[in-house]
Amino acid sequence: MSPFLDVKDLKIHFPTDDGLVRSVDGVTFGLERGKTLGIVGESGSGKSVTSLGILGLHKGRGANISGEIWLDGEELVGASQEHVRGLRGKKMAMIFQDPLSAMHPFYTVGDQIVEAYRIHNKVTKAVARKHAIDMLGRVGIPEPGRRVDSYPHEFSGGMRQRAMIAMALSCDPELLIADEPTTALDVTVQAQILDLMRDLQREFDSALIIITHDLGVVAELSDDILVMYGGKCIEYGSADDIFYRPEHPYTWGLLGSMPRLDREPTERLLPIKGSPPSLINVPPGCAFHPRCPYTERTGDKARTEAPALAETEGGHLVRCHMSPAERRDLWENEIKPVLETP
Amino acid sequence: MTEPQTQPATQTAPARQGEPLLSVRDLEKHFPVTKGLFQRQVGAVKAVDGISFDVYKGETLGLVGESGCGKSTTGRLVTRLLEPTGGQVMFEGQDITHMSQGRLRPLRRDMQMIFQDPYSSLNPRHTVGAIVGAPFRIQGVQTENGVKKAVQDLLELVGLNPEHYNRYPHEFSGGQRQRIGIARTLALKPKLIIADEPVSALDVSIQAQVVNLLEDLQNELDLTYVVIAHDLSVVRHISDRVAVMYLGKIVEIAERKSLYATPMHPYTNALLSAVPVPDPRGRAGRERIRLTGDVPSPLNPPPACRFHTRCWKAQEICKKVEPPLAELASGHRVACHFPENAPGAPEAPATGKDEPVNA
Ligand SMILES: Nc1ncnc2c1ncn2[C@@H]1O[C@H](COP(=O)(O)OP(=O)(O)OP(=O)(O)O)[C@@H](O)[C@H]1O
Ligand SMILES: Nc1ncnc2c1ncn2[C@@H]1O[C@H](COP(=O)(O)OP(=O)(O)OP(=O)(O)O)[C@@H](O)[C@H]1O
Ligand code: SF4
Ligand code: SF4
Ligand SMILES: [Mg+2]
Ligand SMILES: [Mg+2]
């Protein structure tokens, strides 16, 4: 049986004056109800475009979309814009990075939740309002009965984010996509929001996609992790695969770049050299080769031939020309010892 | 002589004896809040409300705390981009608290600020050469082989190609732009650099490049840093000592090791335990301190201990008596009546050495 959400070779390209922007260029993953997928990658790697693509928000906007998105047995890439719009709210919903841009400034928070709720539920305004107050209370807004009549700008950043989560969850969506839901927040508030998302997901048994550049946030929530680079999935596996036996040189680079509180501080960080690729002139061959310390190990192939995303073991997928044995050897003997020594 | 030059690496541990390079006492900045046609003052935002610390030559002091706690304001006060409303700022033994802009000008060379946003802090219409060379022109500094050569040396120093001289900021990535900003900062060979969130707008791989660069430059040029950041992992990596701010106050200040291994202020403990750890197997067993609510407004900060509205250890005394910033272990100061991890932890409220508590 195919999973609840099944994305196959998704491509989203934007024709622009400067050329074709290959924002998403072959992304494949599956996600079951009750499970959480983390998508990580640097700025511009295509994380948001992927998520907006699943919600059908690029449709009719001049984007070239190919591949397949199956949600609960229904294919969405080929479906009409109206049909996909009808699924938003109840079947799938999104939490955006910037709550102000997702909320209407002239309507109260309560009215916005009421409206969203009534699209999918034939209830009176009074019932919907009660539900809105309920939801605001559930996400930890103090005095929800009073705050329901506040405008978004009257909330602090953390409260706004919670209000948006309340809005996104008001119709019990089966798939919830959270795009950098805590990036703008302080760590103590971030911790509250992450707890909240974990609890609500458990309660509603929804499928959750969390998009972030913070490997810590991903590790807190995810069952599976997808690492994106230059519009492509370059590594995919369980959280254990990605954190304890990563096989892609880019993933190694991400882990080496990050100072960690849970380990003795290293003398120096191990950054990835260079900067992220342009999505218009993606480097030929392996898109990571200009920054990869192991280019020479795969000879000319790194520059001429695009590596395929191949399974290394038990659903762990890696896009690299090196053999799995060679990668594991590098990780165990060269990378891991450096990252983990005090 | 004035040409920026690379000095041999001096990797001596920061000496904390002698005169501090920067010394701050009871520093205050209250922004007036006005109302109505006549701009009547109705209150004040107590952005920085009586903080004291020293920064010694060659060290890095990290300044952490949540949004709005007054970190940037502190940075702007000590570099005198803002004038304090109270307290004192001493730089190399000179009182600069209310010094006129004219008299400050020569000192500006010695104190520089790096800003958070590599996008907006560079003028998009100027070339890299003009941007990095501007400090020479503004300060009227003569360079041995001309400004261009000096700028190209600086670009090389921060890891950029000297041939980028005629390019514009938009042609560079975020990390490269931050390097341009750093090159500009270094132009006049400052003694003290205040870096306000120097890496928070950058991707993690680029963050690491810039953090390493700041460390290399410190060793090569014998720089002193105050690094302002909200990321506790970055601050631990880069700092020798760390000060934690909450609502305009320093609540704890200590050597890096001591602060992270034995945090004493409940707020510091909460901050540290809130940082997500990139270790999925560890997540189940981790004990967490969860604060409720957001940081209160600095317009109406809670009385006495400002943290009492969110603190799980708060008692009556916390609402009535402000805890002094007291040295409870060597070099480790904390402002709390009931500190955690304090050596020989007193069951009774910790008090300042000579301030009696009359609760
Ligand atoms: N409508 C569009 N037209 C053209 N290019 C676009 C469009 N939308 C996005 N892009 C480009 O696609 C690339 C991927 O963007 P995306 O927003 O998915 O990045 P991201 O991984 O979410 O990055 P960030 O971490 O900065 O949010 C970027 O280079 C972006 O400029
Ligand atoms: N010019 C100003 N006028 C009035 N209030 C100000 C001014 N500048 C800052 N503030 C207020 O002072 C407080 C401290 O601001 P500051 O920018 O120093 O915080 P911060 O710790 O740097 O926060 P962040 O992490 O968000 O950058 C905030 O409440 C802010 O709104
Ligand atoms: S294919 Fe070659 S260049 Fe690409 S990641 Fe693997 S080793 Fe590096
Ligand atoms: S003084 Fe009281 S309220 Fe303040 S941090 Fe200490 S225990 Fe908490
Ligand atoms: Mg994005
Ligand atoms: Mg700031």
From TrEMBL, chain A:
Coiled coil: none
A GO BP entry: peptide transport
Location of this chain's protein in the cell: Cell membrane
PROSITE patterns reported for this sequence: ABC_TRANSPORTER_1, ABC_TRANSPORTER_2
Superkingdom per UniProt: Bacteria
A Gene Ontology cellular-component term: plasma membrane
A Gene Ontology molecular function term of the record: ATP hydrolysis activity
Database matches in SMART domains: AAA
InterPro entries: AAA+_ATPase, ABC_Ni/Peptide_Import, ABC_transporter-like_ATP-bd, ABC_transporter-like_CS, Oligopep_ABC_C, P-loop_NTPase
Membrane topology qualifier: Peripheral membrane protein
Keywords: ATP-binding, Cell membrane, Membrane, Nucleotide-binding, Transport
Domain ABC transporter: 5-255
A Pfam family that the UniProt record links to this protein: oligo_HPY
Keyword hit for Nucleotide-binding: yes
Database matches in PANTHER family: DIPEPTIDE TRANSPORT ATP-BINDING PROTEIN DPPD, OLIGOPEPTIDE TRANSPORT ATP-BINDING PROTEIN APPD
Family: Belongs to the ABC transporter superfamily.
Name by which UniProt lists this protein: ABC transporter ATP-binding protein
Species this protein is from: Nonomuraea montanisoli
From TrEMBL, chain B:
Stored InterPro entries: AAA+_ATPase (IPR003593), ABC_transp_ATP-bind (IPR050319), ABC_transporter-like_ATP-bd (IPR003439), ABC_transporter-like_CS (IPR017871), Oligopep_ABC_C (IPR013563), P-loop_NTPase (IPR027417)
Pfam families given in the database record: ABC_tran (PF00005), oligo_HPY (PF08352)
CDD domains per record: ABC_NikE_OppD_transporters
Signal peptide: none
One BP term from GO: peptide transport
Segments of skewed composition (Low complexity): 1-15, 340-350
The protein, known as: Dipeptide ABC transporter ATP-binding protein
Family: Belongs to the ABC transporter superfamily.
Organism, as annotated: Nonomuraea montanisoli
Keyword entries, A-Z: ATP-binding, Nucleotide-binding, Transport
SUPFAM superfamilies: P-loop containing nucleoside triphosphate hydrolases
